[in-house]
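Dear colleague,

Thank you for sharing your sequence with our group. We've completed the structure prediction you requested, and as agreed, I am returning the results in plain text so they can be pasted directly into your records. Please verify that the sequence below matches your submission; if there's any discrepancy, let me know and we will rerun it promptly.
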Amino acid sequence: MSLMRLEQTSPTLDFWKDFEDLRRRIGMPFGMGDVFATADWTPSVDVSETDTEYRIRAALPSVDKKDVTVTVENGTLVMRGERKARTEEANERIHRVEIAQGSFYRSFGMPTDADPDKVHAHYHDGMLDVTIHKMPAKKPAGRKVSIQ
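Please find the predicted structure tokens below.
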């Protein structure tokens, strides 16, 4: 018996995939991607917000924690790392490799109320959770104006 891959593509799905790829390259709010960065694959992310923090959750299956770095550089949060190539075992023949391997890179422009000194990352079961705390909202200073 031979294995065949089921192709489930449609012009609509291809369009949205291409659009997302373009959005990543040109950068949109909370996703100012570095158009000059090169990567072998791009991890999927969820970006969310609460009243006190922003959270970025990246899916990094089969990536070792030691192969991931998170940095804050000039108002940009950068995630980079590598998924190591799978090695063939002695009595195994690989017929197809579809899981991307090699380096990845994602960058996100931090909002103006994000505190670059309060960024925390946690990696567990192939998920990287990055929390960026918000700076307290500044209340406008009020003053009494004398009438002349």
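Summary note from our side: The domain at 31-86+93-134 is CATH 2.60.40.790 (Immunoglobulin-like).

Kind regards,
the structure core
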